[in-house]
Structures are given as structure tokens and as C-alpha cells.
Amino acid sequence: MCLRFICTSSLLLLLWLPGAQAAPFEKLLMPGPLSAAHAGMEEECGSCHDPLGEKSQAQLCATCHEEVAEDMAADTGFHGKHPDVQTQQCQSCHREHEGVDAVTLAFELTPFDHNRTDFALVGPHEGLDCASCHMPGEAHRAAPSTCVGCHQQDDVHNGALGTDCGACHLGPGWQKPSFDHARSSFPLLGAHRWLNCDSCHEDQLFVGTAMECAACHRRDDVHGGEFGQDCGSCHSESAWTNTNFDHGSTGFFLRGAHGALACKACHASPHQDKALGTTCVSCHQQDDPHQGRRGSDCAGCHNENNWQATFDHAAKTGFSLLGAHAALTCSTCHKQSMDEPLPTTCSGCHSPDPHAGQLGNNCESCHNNTSFTANLRFDHQLSTFPLLGLHALLQCDDCHAGLRFHDAAESCESCHAADDPHQGRMGTSCGSCHNPVGWAVTKFDHGQKTGFELSGHHADLSCESCHQHPVMLRAESQQECSQCHKQDDPHEGEFGRNCGQCHNTSSFAEITGFGP
Questions:
Q1: CB atoms < 10 A from the CB of 22, how many?
Q2: SS3 breakdown of the chain: % helix, strand, coil, rounded to 5?
């Protein structure tokens, strides 16, 4: 027992002395030869073993293995993240003194929790063999942790985008890049967001890619370059068909039917080479149905909605277009220039006068502006020939064969000569006996008008009984009985011609005027 203590004490003292090296005697006490990594330290036992026990083996290991010490201090790497490292000695995992060819790890690498390192295995990395990244004979910590460290040969960009692959490829595979294009000078908006990278970056060239619309869409330009290169002034990123050009910024607002026109409807040639006019006539001269007779101020009558005129004729000319006038075209009256003054009277436009001037110029006294023939309102009662009795039921053309109304005569015989039962024997002054109510209704007072009162049997006689010939101013009887009754005189004229001395008008048989 004493000998063992003395030998052990001597060995520890020897190891403690500065610069002490293992003598052949100490080598006899070694558990075995060191590994290849430590083989050169077999003469320096104090590098790993503190004979006085003031430093732990982990502290002594950290003296040489500085990278491991830094990981443990910063909680990085496997030795900084594994919870058992801080509480155990290095020899718990790393065995020594088992020979040069011995494996110093005292645990199995598989299954190994790579999440306890600085490089968690996710996506395609998760199924890789260790040897895919950890080269034989190299420390595991020496394996590259950057994408380019392993995938430089797989870089389809050929280094044009730098070495920070993770800036774009954040997903589980190379084919799903997640580069935030908004961080670049060209944010992807609208339809650009759904494009593949190679849609714009051909041959994986990213630096120096043109950002003008025409650089990519020149082949899609339906205008053939006529509208320049600034596509964004009209179109948006959402779609080519969604235009947002503010035409009002040109000083010409697209209102009404203009708003639905395609650009080429007006811009038939390259707009940068030819400035378009802003007047109606500059575009619609060929469409002008007035052929320039109305001047160039189309907007005075028309608006942008359609060609239908909106000219307020009453307010601007003082002549309201009413009735049939409202449906007329401008050229019906305005046959020449709009500056040419037009008459405002009926006769000024509606000539020649079918009445030949007989009724004057005041056409509206009979006609209205709805129709010349319908709803006539002429009051015949105010004329020189009022329509009385049956005349009021007649149509105009019953008496007026034409439109020259003053040509119609006002005498009865002018219309009724063919209807005269007296065949002209009573003269032409029909109204002295008849009235417009009917031919059968007579009103001639024979006693008052002729001085020969029809009494007795004379009252029942027809006019033709006495008036055998056409009458003039007076009847031919002259109140002498013999004028009519000479053939009936039984006295054959012996008693003269004054028959009324004896006879009366009731009967020749009655003797009333002669006594005994």
C-alpha cells in the first residue's frame, strides 16, 4: 500500500513539474496509445491531465480546441447547443488511449439530431447521407454551411446573383424561389407577379435586365411602336386591355361616344409625328352631312353622345320648332350657309301660295304648325258669306272647287242653278223667297213686296200659275183680273176689266161688289 502511494505520488509530482514529459516509466502507466490526432502528445500528459485536479479535463481540452470553446460560450454549434455538453467531460463522448486507428467517438452518429447544430436539415437536405456534406478525414464542423459552399456547380445563375442563394430560395427546393422582387428596383405588380423568372430573365441573366415595357413587350405591341415606348402611360400591369391613360391631360377629354373609341379610331398614324386637331371638323369633315354649309362649329348643335342635334332653336334664333317643324331636318330650311338669314313667316318658306294671295299672309288664322290640312280653324261666319242652315253642314270643296276661295260666287244661282224648280222664271234673287234652312221653306210676303196681296183662292195658287214668264222687278198682273182671267170672262169684256167691282177672290160665282 505504501509503495503504491509513493509511486503514484511520484508520478503526479513528475507530471506537475513544469515542462515535465512522460518518461518510459509513465508510458508504462498509460491505458493505451493515443489516437492519430493526439499521437504527437504522448510525451505531454499534462496537456490533457491536471495532476492537482485544479482544472477539469473539459477546460484542458478547450485550451487546444478553441473553436469548440467558442461554440460552448456562444451556444452555437453542436457543443454549444447540446444540453449534455456543459455537464459532462469530453471523455464521455471522445475516447482516447485506444490506439492510432481507433474511433474516438463513444456514441453512434445515426440517428443524429442535426437540429442541435447550426445547420438544421430541412427539405431535400433531410434525406442526405452524412458523407454528402462531411468529407472523410475532415472535422464535421468543417462542412460548409452556405449554399454556394455545396452548390456552386449547380448555380444556374453562374454567380451573377452573388452567393446569397437563400435570399431567393427559401423553400425546400431550388425550383420554388421566394425572392422578394419588391426589394429590387422593379417590384412585380399585376400580371408580372405570376410570371416565371425566365420569362424576363432569359439565360438566367439578372444583372442589367431592362425595365422598360418595350424591352419585353415589343413583340406584343399591337400599335407597332406608333405610340412610343412609354407603355405605362396608357396600360397597367394588370392586363394590356386595361388602359389608364388620362386623355384629359392632353386637353381633349373623351366624353360620350368618344369614350368608347379605340385609340386607332383617331390616331391612325404615329401620334408623335402628327398632332391631331381638337375641333369636330378636323376628324368628322368627311362625315359632315351638311358639306360645310353649317360652318365648323359642330358643337353648336351636336354633342359627343351622338350626331342627333341638340340645338335649342327657340333660344338661339327666336323661332320655336313646333309641330311638324320639329321633325324637319336642318337642310329642309337651311339650304345654304347657316349665316344666311331665313324668313320667319309662313309665306316666306311655304310658297307659292295655293290661295294666290287671296287670304293674305296670316296663314295661322286658318292653319296650325301640325298640319296644313288637318284641324283647320277658319271661321266662315266672319267672312262675307256666313254659313247658315244647311250651308253649315257642307264641306269646303262642296262650294270651293280649288284653293282660291275668293273665286267662289256668293249668289244662290251660282251653286243652285241646276236645282232651280222655277227654271229661272223667279229671277236670281232666290233669297227673297227661300232661306238656307230648306227649299220648301219660303218667306216671300207677296202683298208687302208687290202690293198685290194673295187672298182667297189666289193664296192657294203656285207661283207659276201667274208668273208664266221670267219675272223682273214686278209681276205682270198689275192687279188687273183680266190679265189672268180674260179667257174666263163670261161677259167677254162688256163690263170692262174691273172685275173686282162685282167679284171677289174667293169665287167668280159670288157677286159681292154690285147691288140692285
A1: 19
A2: 40, 5, 60
